[in-house]
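Bump. Still looking for NUDIX hydrolase structure tokens.
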Amino acid sequence: MFFNLKKEIYNYLPFNEQEKVDKEVILNLLETEDNLLSRENKICHFTASSWIVNKDKTKVLMIHHNIYNSWSWTGGHADNEENLLEVSIKEAKEETGLKSISPILEEIYSIEILTVDGHMKNNQYVSSHLHLNVTYLLEADEENPLYIKPDENSGVQWFELKDIEKVSNEENMKVIYRKLNKKLESFCEG
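Sorry for the wait, here they are.
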């Protein structure tokens, strides 16, 4: 179990110091923790997120997340699926209503360990924990229809790259979104 995911993370080249440190911690957790692909591990578990851009790579598709009351990226829990690229695409489709989303890169675009404060979900309390998050760079046609997923979000919208930090209410996520945009800029230049 975890062979492919562990290999992907091991081979991933960190973009900055945050990714370097988080990669080391995640690799250590893969050796020491059980059930990292399942929410049964109440301390930490894997999630997959998407940085969905338009064809020109000038806009990012965001959802207005119900729990955090903020515009944010799409994503969700691994729920025992080791192929986190598939998880990111599945979640992106579910949360935006898009029928067609394609990976720009098959490999990991970004990694981060995210803190999740305790909250209520489906009338049950979820304790504070960590998401061992893997992000993928995806592309979609901004002309395609979008639909909300009422149990998770109250809006789906394309934003100019420069506006992402303005529309997010989560200070800790603004740092991540800034990093993702810098990586996108580097990717487009390269």
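The longest strand covers residues 129-139.

Edit: fixed formatting.
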